[in-house]
Amino acid sequence: MSRVSVTYENHIAHVRLTRADKMNAVDQDMITAIIAAGNEVAASDARAVIVSGEGKAFCAGIDISGLSGMIGKDPAELLMPRTHGEGTTNQWQEVAMVWARMDIPVIAAVHGVCFGAGIQLALGADIRIASPDAQFAVMEMKWGIVPDMGGMVLLPKLVRSDVLRRLTYTAEPISAEQAERWGLVTELADDPLAAAQELAETIAGKSPSAIRAAKRLIGIAETADAAAVLDAESRLQVDLIGKPHQMEVIAASFEKRAAVFK
Fold it and tell me: What would the pLDDT profile of 79-129 be if each residue is shown by its tens digit?
């Protein structure tokens, strides 16, 4: 049975976890499907991505029944040092990082529980929109392990160190409201999927080359020193000014119409 569906409409990719009967718990088939979906979208002409879960939850975390398959195996052989993507050592990390590396904006629409593997998948998105009744948890400590799916790359960019430690040490669920206060959630919406769709439509209506350049620039701004950021600003701007997409933006503005990009 398929674990993930990918559809496209008006330059927006919709990636849906479809294991609703298990609250979209992540097993090996879903790991494979999520990574494949990410690679497919990255190679498409989509201008924005929405990641969501069908049924009652975004993702309940790892399917614990699947962990039995690891019993008796060498953890080092399972986790290190096989690369499955740029910088990752294993498939589990790719579940989040394939989205974090995406050169177009990714929006996670979260409802219900978003635990463990689910929260790390959501962290791979640029923006997280959650329903007021959503719950979040860095769940790994419950099972005597640490977050290992890219969460320790992505979560420190969003929350303070004390919040990161509290979430990780306790494995306790927090409300969407608390998650928003702590910076884990971008905004709350009664219908997060509809809100994500509206936002994706706004993004998809902007210059595709400028959006991709903006995402690259933000990534540089978050990690590089001032000199490198200033250099990147200028280099990326040179690649945009006077080019077809920018000229179409200007023409559409003067003509009071929606821009049409080729």
Answer: 555 556 677 778 889 999 999 999 999 999 999 999 999 999 999 999 999
pLDDT digits (tens, 9 = 90+) for 165-220: 999 999 999 999 999 999 999 999 999 999 999 999 999 999 999 999 999 999 99
Task: Enumerate residues 6+ apart whose C-beta is below 8 A from 102.
Answer: 38, 41, 42, 49
Homologous superfamily of 4-203 in CATH? Answer: 2-enoyl-CoA Hydratase; Chain A, domain 1 (3.90.226.10)
Backbone angles phi, psi at 84, to 5 degrees: -120, 0
List, by residue range, all CATH 3.90.226.10 domains of the chain: 4-203
Q: Pinpoint the alpha helices (H) of the chain.
A: 28-42, 75-79, 91-100, 117-123, 151-154, 161-170, 176-182, 192-204, 208-223, 226-240, 244-254
What are 2-55's pLDDT values in tens digits? 899 999 999 999 999 999 999 999 998 999 999 999 999 999 999 999 999 999
Instruction: Tally helices (H) and strands (E) across the chain.
Output: 11, 9
Q: How far is CA 255 from the centre of its chain?
A: 36
From first CA to last CA, the distance across the chain in angstroms is: 37
Which tokens go with 125? Answer: 């998105």
pTM of the complete model beyond 0.70: yes
Structure tokens at 163: 């919040």
A 10 A CB-CB count for 130 gives: 29
**Distance (Å) of CA 1 to CA 20, 121, 153:** 12, 21, 32
Type of residue numbered 212: R
